[in-house]
arginine--tRNA ligase
Amino acid sequence: TMAANQEFTGNLKRQLEKLFDVSVKATAPDVPGVKPLIDIGKFGDYQCNNAMGIWAKIKGKGTQFKSPLAVGQALMTSVPASEMVESCSVAGPGFVNVVLSAKWMAKSIENMLIDGIDTWAPAPPVKRAVVDFSSPNIAKEMHVGHLRSTIIGDTIARMLEFSKVEVLRRNHVGDWGTQFGMLIEYLFEKFPDTDSVTETAIGDLQAFYKESKSKFDSDPVFKEKAQQAVVRLQGGDPIYRKAWAKICEISRTEFAMVYKRLRVELEEKGESFYNPYIPSVIEELNSKGLVEESEGARVIFLEGFNIPLMVVKSDGGFNYASTDLTALWYRLNEEKAEWIIYVTDVGQQQHFNMFFKAARKAGWLPESDKTYPRVDHVGFGLVVGEDKKRFRTRSTDVVRLVDLLDEAKTRSKTALIERGKDKEWTPEKLDQTAEAVGYGAVKYADLKNNRTTNYQFSFDEMLNDKGDTAVYLLYAHARISSIITKSGKDIDELKKTGKLALDHEGERALALHLLRFAETVEEACTTLLPSVLCAYLYELSNRYTTFYSNCQVIGSPEETSRLLLCEATAIVMRKCFHLLGITPVYKI
Ligand code: ARG
């Protein structure tokens, strides 16, 4: 059974839904299954949009109501009294506008300052999830697409972890393809003594891959040997297994550098891991009558697709789909995951839709795609260069990710030096800040776009200190922190004893946005769109600016209250940074 719906203390939308649930039932007792529809309001802080829907169901059926407006009025009058709501009014065809009580808002923020931001975390109905992300292919290349997967997947994992879900962060590396035959054979040729092969000897694994590939394409004897090598590897020949392990190890070291720079945690369970389980899983599908013979291969026909899903190749070998079906089986049955999320480019959407469908047919997953256990393919667009073409660097056709990250850091360091920070700070501090800003910029530039669109990679844009960039946001946070420091007040003491008042419009607008944090994270989680969180963060920083330019903090009669509002803003910003995998800076 799923975890029970908990009390969402921080989630305003949810709390209003509860109130309006009562009024919807009181207003339309004979209309079953009406769910309260609460949205951010155009006129109030929130609005309830149920009047029109209810009207459509009751009009002409002897109702006492004369119009949707009358329904709206009834909804308004039957909202239970709550300290949360200051007032309601009805507008237009029947929207119920809700104005929140400033006193209640202040109290809620005071509570968060005392109990911590974790009290504003969402509570999805799952205990354990798998996030399958990054997942490059060994020896082939780790390209910018894998960088996107790494960044987006990490944020999704972080949001779920914040929601107290146990997340299995899975690196589903491609370590079992037929490419290994030629790689191993090439390794034997170049280094007859395999044991002595080191990373430096092979040098660039991508170049090594290319060389072996061109030999494979041009030399029929080599090709023949490579094909036999695959058979021997998959048959478990120890010498071939050893050579395979060596190549994987070298690749792994290369990937690890990227993960370390990005501070992304991943646990590798590559394609090879699932290999021993494939035959029994295919057999299960077969016994359910799903698998059919087609041109020597074994396939699953699926409604709505014009090609079948191949699960055993005509040579008897397994493929990407056999592995993914097996990995899904493993995650559901062995790992007991209730939500499995795959992060890859949108180009693989059909593959995912197909094996998800096969799993539903096999009864592994419920028919409806929003019920648990649930699977989601989180697809993202291409990374393009400033010329709108697939991203490449000047010299080579592949972009080395480590170089890319290094460049972001170098550029942000240069910018800091231009501002004289090398004279002000220790070299360590300069380096750490350059890293936080540089890597933060790369991550934020990626995450802020709706992931399904192509994303244009531009250092100049992402490192701009104005506009919707990590640099701007990190600076904003640093400024807030220094205001608190400059006040000379003990903020931890103030949090316990100080009172918040929201009398100025700038204060109220900022507070309202702070209170929307919980519902925003929940939305970003359910839609699996990190961009929702980025938009929230940018708006938070804008509202803070408006507040700060209209409301004097230090030395004003409202100093305590306003310092608390600064502190609450800094806390929420830091939590956003944390969820986006960005390291905050405190001084700039
Ligand atoms: N290795 C694949 C690629 O680079 C991505 C794997 C994604 N995960 C999965 N379970 N299929 O395209």
User: Anything to note?
Assistant: Confidence is low (pLDDT under 50) at residues 1-8.
